[in-house]
Design a protein that fits this description.
There is one protein chain. The protein is of the alpha/beta class and about 300 residues long. Helices cover about 20% and strands about 15% of the residues. The strands form three sheets. It has a six-stranded antiparallel sheet with strand order 1-4-8-7-6-5, with no helix packed on it.
């Protein structure tokens, strides 16, 4: 989470967890899970996630600080208490391989205005700004963790909406960055579905592809829709979509003086680059797919049996 921002998870998250054998398909579906998993969350809905640096006046409950490695993973439930009343109010997660977050329990906190004027809410127009784009490569040369998670979520939607058919990606950044991930999870063969990129600021492809990759709204998370279009869409993280739709351009003409912004030198040392293709974050893919009712389709059986 960016500083001074928060998000709300409408689905149940966190403990208590119940094994699939105890729950069954019907009760799991009521919790928003439509395929067999090891355990189903019966935690609270509408939990609020913030950046750890934005938490205040809370202290750790030391008897609930279990973790797999060198941090806490929240397996025992809320591990942060209010310093004033000592009530458990939140869960800190910072174990290895986990996003560093603080999850506030919705029934234990209330929203209070800070008195500081809020900035303008983000809108579709923000996606065209260069600062909204999220580069796929980190400064250390590794793939962006945000990209790996976003591709995992989008790929789950793509598998569901195409019912496990092969797809043809559009040439350019989409095919270059997503091609390896799509090839790993979707079969090759005849009857491929066409995929295109669409959203604010770019024209709708004609003829319309079978599936459109569209951005989620940066505030509400609702997928973008073209007016009067009811075809299949796959939502993408808005920052990832913005990079694919507006990757930036450099002039094809010779330039003197300093290099234009975004141009990479071809002398040594080159900027760091990943040594392996971009792959989706496995948990993001699996956790998203089991929450899509389409996973029950007969053609998606191989994903349900994993």
């Amino acid at each position: 989470m960016e500083p001074s921002t928060y998000a709300v998870e409408p689905e149940p998250t966190g403990p208590p967890w119940r094994l699939w054998e105890e729950v069954g398909a019907e009760s799991a579906a009521q919790q928003g899970v439509f395929a067999r998993v090891y355990s189903v969350s019966f935690g609270a809905r509408n939990r609020i996630v913030i950046a750890p640096g934005d938490s205040r006046s809370m202290t750790l409950l030391l008897d609930k600080c279990e973790g797999y490695c060198r941090g806490v993973d929240g397996r025992a439930g809320p591990n942060l208490a209010c310093e004033g009343c000592e009530r458990a109010v939140a869960t800190r997660i910072d174990d290895c391989g986990s996003w560093q977050t603080v999850w506030l329990e919705p029934d234990a906190v209330v929203r209070r205005p800070s008195g500081v004027p809020a900035g303008p809410p983000p809108d579709w127009n923000d996606l065209e700004h260069a600062e909204h784009r999220v580069p796929p490569v980190e400064p250390d040369g590794s793939w962006s963790r945000r990209w790996e998670a976003a591709i995992g979520v989008a790929l789950a939607h793509l598998v569901a909406v195409t019912e496990d058919h092969s797809v043809n990606l559009p040439d350019g950044p989409v095919a270059e960055l997503l091609g390896h991930a799509v090839g790993r999870y979707l079969p090759a063969g005849p009857g491929a579905r066409s995929v295109g990129l669409a959203g604010p600021g770019i024209p709708l492809p004609r003829p319309r592809p079978d599936v459109l990759l569209v951005p989620r709204h940066p505030l509400t998370g609702v997928p973008w829709r073209s007016p009067d279009d009811e075809g299949a869409v796959v939502p993408l993280d808005s920052g990832v979509w913005a990079y694919l739709a507006h990757p930036g351009e450099t002039s094809p003409m010779p330039a003197t003086g300093a290099l234009p912004e975004g141009v990479l030198r071809d002398d040594y040392p080159l900027p760091p680059r990943p040594r392996y293709p971009l792959a989706p974050q496995r948990h993001a893919f699996e956790d998203t797919l089991v929450r899509l009712p389409a996973v029950r389709a007969p053609r998606l059986r191989r994903y349900r049996d994993v």
